[in-house]
Amino acid sequence: MIYKWNYEDLTTQQKEQRDELAKKLGISPVLCKLLVQRNISSIEDARKFFRPNLKDLHDPFLLPDMDKAIKRIEKALGQKQRILIYGDYDVDGTTAVALVYKFLRKFTTNLDYYIPDRYDEGYGISEQGIDYAEETGVKLIIALDCGIKAVEKVAYAKSKGIDFIIGDHHMPDEVLPDAVAVIDAKRIDSTYPYEHLSGCGVGFKLVQALAQNNKIDFSEIQDLLDLVAVSVASDIVPITGENRILTYYGLKQLNSNPSLGLKGIIDICGLTYKNITVNDIIFKIGPRINASGRMMKGKEAVDLLLANSIEDAREKSANIDHYNDDRRELDKRITDEAILFIDQNMDMKSKKSIVIYNETWHKGVIGIVASRLTEKHLRPAVVLTKSQGMITGSARSVMGFDVYKAIEACKDIIENFGGHTYAAGLSLKEENLDEFKRRFEALSLEMIAPEMMRPQINIDAQLTFREINNKFIEELDSFAPFGPENLNPIFVTCDVQDYGTSKVVGKDNVHLKLEMVDKTVIAPVNGIAFRQSDSYERVRNGEPFDICYTLEENVHNGKSNIQLYVKDIDSGQLN
Prior knowledge:
Blueprint: E1 2-5, H1 12-25, H2 29-37, H3 43-50, H4 66-78, E2 82-87, H5 91-104, E3 111-114, H6 127-135, E4 138-144, H7 151-159, E5 163-167, E6 181-183, H8 199-213, H9 225-234, H10 241-256, H11 260-268, H12 278-295, H13 299-305, H14 310-344, H15 346-349, E7 354-357, H16 366-377, E8 381-387, E9 390-396, H17 403-408, E10 416-419, E11 423-428, H18 433-447, E12 456-459, E13 461-462, H19 470-477, E14 491-498, E15 503-505, E16 511-517, E17 525-529, H20 536-540, E18 545-556, E19 559-570
Parallel strand pairs: 1-12, 2-3, 2-4, 4-5, 5-6, 7-8, 13-14, 17-19
Antiparallel strand pairs: 8-9, 9-11, 10-11, 14-16, 14-18, 15-16, 16-17, 18-19
Helix pairs in contact: 1-2, 4-8, 5-8, 5-9, 5-13, 8-9, 9-10, 9-12, 11-14, 12-14, 13-14, 14-16
């Protein structure tokens, strides 16, 4: 394991900023150091960070083409034209569709929504979707979380007299679709102050602009933020700037008064009486919404998110929960097959990338399988299957390797692609597969340093056990919501010893329950080290060891206690 400090030691100026923050805010200097490391160096910046304010959201009309989009939507509403909300089949797309639909249905009944079938239509705008729009009399399609590269499809719609508004957050090509409006903060000509909105976040900005233009108070749209929080967490976009504000208030909504559809999911996955966090969305709520598009039809997820009764929500949540169970079984089987194939092909072990193809694999889970392969083998992974006569798949990457740019460098042999730095999708003809493998490996060899293929833990700060108390936890909680670019800090404590009561626990005794002391405390501190029971003898032999961990307050039977979630146990090498 590589242990790496997240940041270099503070400069003299940064130390002065840390001390000033600690003095004026009255919080731990360790946490003030984390603020400075996050480029929060003034009292005003710190107050904005700790107290996100909806008034600090950017003017939605700063987004490119927003004025054109609002003018066209208002024309459609005024002339009672039929509007179709169109979105991707993942969490981000389905929440975006549900959000905009929920707002617009207050003003028109001439409204519909459409989610493409992952298997029959594939990702993004489809001709089938446009044909459906024509058949049902649609004059305006609002595409969310997709469409930024749909030049031909938008032209096809235009030939049928259907206008398009595109609200996307993916990287655009040089040529934009000929839509009425193309709203994307990543456009080259965009001057919008924040470029990391989720697809649902773009949908919310569209709604915010409509409300603002029609003198509708912000409180009328604030209850839609639970959907934005779910999308931000699930799509793994940075939880900084505007996303931090949206997620902060979205989590408040999710915990206090979620929509009926989300309440159904919350209940089905055992979160009813829990304070829901970003991690709960990532590991419990998001996968269930995603399971609908992976296993059956993404439209069912929107049906659930728009549920009008708790009974309807519960029924639809139960169905989606079954899809998620099926998804887990399928995901495990295909992952096991992929790992076995790699183990049996020695030449793959010497490569810096994994490109693996099996035409029988289920398209709905190959993105998850790619993530698991990247996690296990610590190299970028592209998992491919066959769909509609094309090879199609998902790519995931290691820190420091831009898989989107790597795929873009092969675009002359790829039919379609899209995505982000660490996750992308693509499709290509079968005759180009070998050449793609060769080029992708060549790029990996060039760009991936050996240390990028070794497990690494980024440590934020060093603590003694004496410093860990309820006040420290309360102050640390104010850093939430945690996520990309504002990760839950990892701390290290050195020269720790077993209190004499640590033990292996869990099914098959794979986990390690720790009770520890260091030189600064007498009473033991509790920790849990998941899947680290192989360190039991090292812990129990009485020798000092170092641990790195995150901190969390647990509430059980009305009692709260501080829990260390141990990432790794080391034999005194971190000093």
